[in-house]
Amino acid sequence: MSERIFLAILVLVALVAGWLALQLGAPPPEKPTVVERPEKPQPPQEPPKETPPAEQPKPEKKPEQPQAERPTPQPQTRAVKNPDVLVQAVIADVDTLDPVQAYDTASGEIIFNIYENLIAYDGPRIDRFVPQLATEVPSLENGLIEVRPDGTTLIRFPIRAGVKFHNGHDLTPEDAAYSFRRIMIHSHPDSPAWILLEDLLGVHDLGDLAEKVGDQRACEMVKEAVFTEGQKVVFKLREPSATFLARLAHGGSWGAITDKEFVIERGGWDENCARWREFYQVEKEKLPLHSVANGTGPFKLERWLPDEEIVLARNENYWRTPAQLSKVITRVVPEFGTRKLMLQQGDADIIEVDRQFIPQMEGLAGVRTIYGLPGLSNTTAFFNYDIPVEGNPNIGSGRLDGEGIPPDFFRDIHIRKAFNSSFNWKEYIEQVWRNEAAQARGPIPAAMPFFNPENPVYSYDPKAAEEHFRAAWNGAVWEKGFQFTIVYNEGNDQRRIAAEMLKDNVEALNPRFQIEVRSEPWPTFLDSIRARRVPIFIVGWLADFPDPHNFAQPYMHSQGSYGIRQSLSRIANYDDLILQAAKELDPQKRRQLYYELQRRAYEDAIDIFLVDPTERTWQRTWVDGWLYNPMWPGEARYFYLLSKRPDAQVNPQLLAAFPQAKLTQW
Amino acid sequence: MLAYIARRLLLLPLILLGVTLLIFLMLQLLNPYQRLSVYIDEGSLVRSKPEDLERLIRLHGLNDPIFLPFTVGRVEILGISFGSPQCRGLCYCRCTPQYLRWLRNVLRGNLGWSETDKMPVKEALMSRIPATVELAVLAILPLVLIGIALGIVSAVYHNRPLDHLTRFMSITGYAFPTFVFGLLVLMIFYGKLGWFPPGRLSTEFNEIVNSPAFMRYTGLNTLDGLLNGRLDVFADALRHLILPVLTLSYVSWALIVRITRSSMLETLQQDYVTVARAKGQRESRVILKHAARNALIPVATISGLVFAGWLSGVVITETIFNYRGLGKFVAEAAYTLDIPSVLGFTLFATTLLVLMNLLVDLLYAVIDPRVRLE
Question: I need a surface site. Which of A341, A405, A547, B185 has the fewest CB within 10 A?
């Protein structure tokens, strides 16, 4: 009898535990607060008072009535936790704090808030600049840009007086010049040095230049490319560049101004040309600023404990009004569930959320999300026009015999158009991106200047796809069929589904068409891409600087990052057009050139341009002043503007700059 | 006994050599580009030119031979390619082989650079060991004490409701995936009740611990809190440890309970236990003094191994509770092929395992006087 009672109790306990688990696992989402449109536009959010005002992000015009629905702010369910400390929980840790090497967004965000540039993007705008450590933005009109008859271009930046580094040293033009020279000397293959080297010296690696002109001369050329002239720092470009200011304005790495004396004290390059090789391509552990920082920015480094947290403290001696937050803590929390609970409990104010977890975030009390923000990245499926056959398991027999594909399979334009017509963008964007992306209209993303919103695009059209397949290779493809493999990097579901959708749609056209989709761990995938063994590879590109050249060059230039990997020169050559567009200073002429490039990318169907994703933020409703610029790295982005208060509002500048953005809060 | 200990310790360098050699041997299966993956992410890959990858490989010496200053040309065995494509037959390399280079640095106290933690491997290990030790020590106490107690109770009340209940609880713990159990308790005790947060300390106490006024004696937050006379720090550290300790010990209870139970059941059938009872000794004395002590030998073995395993890191528990310990470190290092970190960790874990085994062996002699260490 007692056994039976005991078993009954066990079953009961199990049932209660199961019920409890279900309740905890799926809390019913709270409804968003009542949606109302504000009667009047909100006044622009004033950042801390400043001198001069030009450096502050400001709206181009008065905030418009945003199209997005605006819920009424709700009173906080509890008091603001740690009111002057902002905590953000992110997935990835900082790679390095040295601006000469940092090339990832996690490092970029921290560097962006510690260091400053000569010029910066104008608040949420990517097409306008404001002075930061310079006092003026150079232009032809103000005479700070001088184009000489031989094409050599001098760009002068007057340096702001009275600015101090965190260690108390004064900022000088020599500091600015040294910062850029040091990046070029470092010239690490996995660093952003090429972004400066390209315009200033016409190479991607200083070692290449040294091979041609000798070590001593290469170093001298670096010094001649960036030098001081009184209170000014001067850049000498080989030829006019329409992209240079956009390159310099990027915060978070290669534009950062460092303290020359401090770097040399820590064992950095002392500008001795006889010794530059000692500092060329050195590894992180030897970088003088890898784990320390000394900038002029609104925050200074307090501590960095890798894989745990990085803490920035307010710079009380900031040359503008000090920031409102006393500290910003960036915690590395790779597990989504933990990040979500931290936000829910108010232990994190801003967190990073992958798209697949969005449904789990809905209904969290005291949390807001702003979405539909334009991004500067895209994802593309690239065709390989010269696939190696030997030892390549991805193209079967290597011949057009129904058992594989030949190395030049995609050089036939009908094949490329057939694949483009076989992809279902609508379904992909709805199912995979939850409508938080738009079909890419070419290599240049929608938020980029000179993007053509009218550029034609392919759409899912099985009939057109069949016609092109029938016409391809004089009918041999349709008759014999083909087999090949699409490879994606393990764990990337968005790419997996894109590949599977392409496979399903193509295979449905003809039973002789066989596509295998296979994942590879990162080390193997890296090797496959390097060896160009992959017939179609799906990868993305995130803007280095907000200029269409940064997309046209890698996508369409024969020597661009993708162009070279897919042997693009086998089917077309756009090199002259790309270089012409990069040099052109007249915006109208540039527009025409980039429109032409976008049109040709469509006509030649060089790739399957998949999506331009939009961005989204998740934060507590007590976060005030958050502003978005597609080029600002990270989640919390520009800490200077942030504060925490019970009556926090969404930054009106944000709503004015991005009227398409949507806001929901619970 | 001293000779026994010395003999066991002398074996340690040989074991370390063997383990690290094995790891390097396995590296031969990967080409330099694959081994480069730790230094390069996708963003860097798409931005790099082909010659950039070659430069990086040279920079990190990934093309150098592993053991001997010779490179062999490309050969394929069982579908796996070995050797360098740049070499035909046997090529002499005027370089230090990778293993010798690593070994030489280790002997100089340099374990290399950890890409995972962006600092020297030695510093990375030293910064993470205290957290893992704190977690493991606090978790082993409830595991052993409760596990043994439940095992004894279960054996004494063999096939009665208490036995069933104990077995049910321990089996559910064993069957519960750590990930699920950890997330569940985190959702209840942090998400719903807000009692026990993840991480090692709350924001305000983290600031105290990292301030110059707070002395870091051991790196263990609980102990350092006490040594600094900061009971609030101690309490906060403990608050953060409760859930990881619960998760870690609960999912391992089953093992200890079952071993104690079966060992106790066997011991309780022994003649000397019957004799003790026949002599009229109290049942509690019979169980605890005569039976339990002899039943604990296998328990000590398993507990030692479990403890050593925990000290080498508990990946899932550390990940869920965002606890910066060795488990997270080595998991990430292995996934990204961060070889110096993996090797550094291997040295630590192997040493620990050898020492723990030695300790358990010594413990046998303490538990059972019949055991002689020779």
Answer: B185
Q: How confident is the model at residue A57 (pLDDT cuts 50, 70, 90)?
A: very low
Minimum distance, in Å, between the CA of residue B236 and any CA atom of chain A:
14
Find, among A637, A575, A6, A104, the residue nearest to A328 by Cα: A637
- Beta strands A513-520 and A437-439: pairing type? unpaired
Closest by Cα among B316, B334, B287, B330 to B129: B330
- Contact (CB<8Å) A96/B55: no
- Buried-exposed string B86-105: b where 16+ CB fall within 10 A, e elsewhere: ebeeeeeeeeebbbbebbee
Q: Nearest CA to A227 among A219, A215, A218, A236?
A: A236
- For position A65, what pLDDT does the model report? 36
Chain A residues closer than 8 Å to B206 by CB:
309
- Phi, psi (deg, nearest 5) at residue A187: 50, 35
Using alpha carbons only, what angle is made at residue A214 by residues A211 and A219, rounded to the nearest 5 degrees?
110
Q: Does B86 lie at the interface with A, CB-CB under 8 angstroms?
A: no
Residue B328 has pLDDT above 90, yes or no: no
C-alpha distances (whole Å) from A563 to each of A51, A555, A571, B47 are 46, 6, 11, 11
The pLDDT mean for chain A works out to: 87
Which residues are CB-neighbours of A56 under 8 A, at least 6 positions away? A47, A50, A123, A130
Interface check A306 vs B, CB under 8 A? yes
Residues written for chain B: 374
**B52 falls in which pLDDT band (50, 70, 90)?**
confident
Four-point Cα dihedral A353, A358, A361, A366, nearest 10: 80
Note whether B187 contacts A347, CB cutoff 8 Å. Answer: no
CA A477 to each of CA A405, A409, A480, A513, A533: distance values in angstroms, whole numbers, following the listed order: 9, 10, 5, 9, 21
If one compares B257 and A32, the residue with the highest pLDDT of the two is B257
Report how far residue A185's alpha carbon sits from residue A396's, in angstroms, rounded to the nearest whole number: 45
Are the beta carbons of A334 and B319 separated by less than 8 Å?
yes
Chain A residues with beta carbon closer than 8 angstroms to that of B40: 190, 526
- Cβ within 8 Å of B, A 248-277: none
**Reported pTM:** 0.82
Q: In this predicted structure, what is the pLDDT of residue B269?
A: 84
CA distance B355 to B58: 39
How do beta strands A643-644 and B113-114 pair? unpaired
The partner residues of A370 in beta bridges, in order of sequence, read A617, A663
Whether complex ipTM tops 0.90: no
What totals of helices (H) and strands (E) does chain A contain, helices first? 21, 21
User: Is residue A79 within 8 Å of A63, Cβ to Cβ?
Assistant: no
Residue B198: count of CB within 10 angstroms of its CB: 25
